[in-house]
Amino acid sequence: MVWHDDELKALCSPYLAVGYRSEKPRLTDVRRTETGVAGDFAVADGEVDSLGVYHLSAVTALVVASQLIVVGVHIDQELRRKSGEVFLHDISLRCRRQVNVRDGSCELDFVRRRKTAHGMYYKVSCSVESGAFVGTASVLHSLPGAATGS
Question: What letters, b where the CB count within 10 A reaches 16 and e where it falls short, cover 119-144?
């Protein structure tokens, strides 16, 4: 059997189909910590479930963590403006408990950093909303003038 458009719509999550696009997560502030950076975030226009409750989704948590990674590597290198690109080579984020807040926090620890011919490589660990989501990522901050490729 092959499922077609209308049949698939009946099975698909409305949130994953279009709902996540209406959420507007943003960092509201970021500060240095002993091992990395921490930040606060807010989610505007978050989707609510059929009971009227907002759930911080893994999709939104991933966006928040990724944005903190981009900002964090710049702060770590004492850069005041976005410079070059931050390529997310891999990321793993695990949900440990449900979160029902639109305003929360995210922490990022720099586990390893090293300068390469392509830029600055980072291995990081992250936590969103006090461990509700935890994970790791590998990123390359490609600086202007660095060799191309990854």
Answer: bbbbbbbbbbbeebbbbebbbbbbee
